[in-house]
Amino acid sequence: KNQVEQSPQSLIILEGKNCTLQCNYTVSPFSNLRWYKQDTGRGPVSLTIMTFSENTKSNGRYTATLDADTKQSSLHITASQLSDSASYICVVSALTGGGNKLTFGTGTQLKVEL
Amino acid sequence: DAGVTQSPTHLIKTRGQQVTLRCSPKSGHDTVSWYQQALGQGPQFIFQYYEEEERQRGNFPDRFSGHQFPNYSSELNVNALLLGDSALYLCASSRPGFTSASYNEQFFGPGTRLTVL
């Protein structure tokens, strides 16, 4: 069964600090991995997308890494801001006969405080 | 470009009723997917529409049905509502040229918050 597990479930950090969120997956056959940011009550917004051959990808203060051998990914946030408070969802795409099929993690709830 | 739009934003229904949610995809997108997101959970895939047909379906009962129109907009219908259907319903659209090698990046709408009493 395709699964995506994220850790920690929730995290509180002080503004200006860095943090790293983890994602482990058992999705097969792997197509790509995405990180989304979801503000409360809003739709997810894509941060990064990585294919099998990509080890790292950055989007501003967000840097995602992918180890396809160990099936692990991380999202590193540098110099956190209050606006970073949100749920961060790891999504892994599998190749199927009908195209890409997405499996979502349950997310890491990040709160940035003063 | 308005991006993906959904209506209504909020909806309150009672058990046993039926509901229709609407989605307009991002300009240039032809594939629409629907997700259910319970509070504190990740989105769960309901189904995907392409060329006015259901292409993929998740583990949802037949009470959940959909439709895609020639202009690529889509509706999600839920019959015989249960309390457990209360959730944020997300619509996502993706670009044409859907192939097994594509990213199939999905752009999400703001969602419709459905409350079943």
Question: What does this 3D model show about the protein?
Answer:
The complex is a heterodimer of chains A (114) and B (117). Chain A is an all-beta fold. In chain A, a hairpin with a 4-residue loop joins strand 7 (62-67) and strand 8. Chain A contains no helices and 11 strands. The mean pLDDT of chain A is 92. With 117 residues, chain B is an all-beta fold. Chain B has strands spanning 5-7, 10-13, 19-24, 31-37, 44-50, 53-57, 64-68, 74-78, 87-94, 106-108, 112-116. In chain B, strands 2, 4, 5, 6, 9, 10 and 11 form a 7-stranded mixed β-sheet that branches. The mean pLDDT of chain B is 90. Chain A binds chain B through residues 4, 31-32, 34, 36, 41-46, 49, 51, 89, 93, 95-96, 98-102, 104-107, and chain B through 4, 33, 35, 40-45, 55-56, 88, 90, 92, 98-100, 102-111, 113.
Layout of secondary structure:
The complex is a heterodimer of chains A (114) and B (117).
Chain A (H helix, E strand, L loop, with lengths): L3 E4 L2 E5 L4 E7 L4 E9 L6 E7 L4 E4 L2 E6 L4 E6 L8 E11 L2 E6 L3 E6 L1
Parallel strand pairs in A: 2-11
Antiparallel strand pairs in A: 1-3, 3-8, 4-5, 4-9, 6-7, 7-8, 9-10, 9-11
Chain B lengths: L4 E3 L2 E4 L5 E6 L6 E7 L6 E7 L2 E5 L6 E5 L5 E5 L8 E8 L11 E3 L3 E5 L1
Parallel strand pairs in B: 2-11
Antiparallel strand pairs in B: 1-3, 3-8, 4-5, 4-9, 5-6, 7-8, 9-10, 9-11
